[in-house]
C-alpha cells in the first residue's frame, strides 16, 4: 500500500486578516455578496477587526486596488466581490475579461490568495440567484476559498 501525504485547508478563519474589495456598481447585488462573505468569516472564527471592507467604483478597478493591498502585506487574503451584468454593448466583455485577468495576475505575483466573487451574468435574475437565492451566495464561496487556500499555503510553506 502506498502512503500518500494529503494537504488540505481547514475552514478556520481564526486569527486571519481578510480584505473584502467591493464594487459599488450594482451595489444592490454586491451588498448581498458582502453580507454572505462577512457572515461566513465570522461564523468560521475571524474577529470583526480582522475584516476590512474596501469599496471601489466598479470591477475594472479590482486589479489596481488588490495589487496595492497585496503589496502592503497587511492581509492574509483578499476577496473581490462585484457584479457585471451583460448589456447591449461589448462593454461587459472587456470589463469582465480585464478584471478577471488582473485579479489572477495579482494573486500569482503576490502569492496572496484572492477569492473571486465577481459575478458575470447575462441577466439581473442570474445575478440575484448567485447572490443568495437559488444558486447560493458566491460571496460565501469566495470567502471560503480564500480561507481554505490560506490554510493550504501555510502547510506548504
Account of the protein in words:
The protein has a single domain, classed as Lumazine/riboflavin synthase (Rossmann fold, 3-Layer(aba) Sandwich). It contains five helices and six strands. Helix 1 packs across helix 5 and helix 2 runs parallel beside helix 3. The two termini are 27 Å apart. The relative contact order is 0.23.
Strand and helix map with partners:
Elements: E1 18-23, H1 27-43, E2 51-56, H2 62-72, E3 77-85, H3 91-110, E4 114-121, H4 124-130, E5 131-133, E6 136-137, H5 138-156
Parallel strand pairs: 1-2, 1-3, 3-4
Antiparallel strand pairs: 5-6
Helix pairs in contact: 1-5, 2-3
Summarize the structure.
The chain has helices at residues 27-43, 62-72, 91-110, 124-130, 138-156; strands spanning 18-23, 51-56, 77-85, 114-121, 131-133, 136-137. It is of the alpha/beta class and 157 residues long.
Q: State the secondary-structure class.
A: alpha/beta
CATH superfamily: Lumazine/riboflavin synthase
**Distance separating the two termini:** 27 Å
Main beta sheet: 4 strands, parallel
CATH architecture: 3-Layer(aba) Sandwich
Q: What is the CATH third-level topology name?
A: Rossmann fold
Number of strand elements: 6
Roughly what fraction of the amino acids lie in strands?
Answer: 15-25%
Low-confidence stretches: none
Q: What is the overall shape? A: globular
List key phrases describing it.
157 residues; single chain; four-stranded parallel sheet; globular; two-stranded antiparallel ribbon; 5 helices; 6 strands; Rossmann fold; 22% strand; alpha/beta
